[in-house]
Design goal:
Blueprint lengths: L1 H15 L3 H21 L1 H4 L3 H20 L5 H29 L1
Helix pairs in contact: 1-2, 1-5, 2-4, 4-5
């Protein structure tokens, strides 16, 4: 989950700095890892897993728009910011769940 959080932040940075090639690679890595995390932590995430599903959909949309609209990054930035927020939230949920199990 921490890797997804970092990838989301790196994706946002790449878009903000207009490094669209890097953004494409970050989006691809996020999409690939997202499916693995979703399946691996399905029970722990519970209903919050919907955030991960939405992040997957949003990053796919970012990837598509990145290829189409490289000259207008504002909507990409807004969407990437949402993904970063959701990944931070999910990372916290998983950390809390793991901490509770260890106690």
């Amino acid at each position: 989950m921490k890797r997804l959080e970092r990838l989301a932040a790196d994706l946002l940075t790449a878009i903000e700095t207009e490094q669209y090639g890097l953004a494409s690679h970050q989006a691809r890595d996020f999409i690939s890892d997202c499916l693995d995390v979703r399946e691996h932590h399905r029970e722990r995430l519970g209903t919050d897993g919907g955030k991960l599903e939405m992040a997957f959909v949003l990053v796919r949309a970012i990837s598509k728009r990145n290829a189409e609209v490289r000259s207008q990054p504002a909507s990409l930035i807004e969407t990437a910011q949402r993904v970063v927020g959701d990944m931070g939230s999910l990372s916290g949920i998983l950390s809390r769940s793991i901490d509770e199990e260890e106690q």
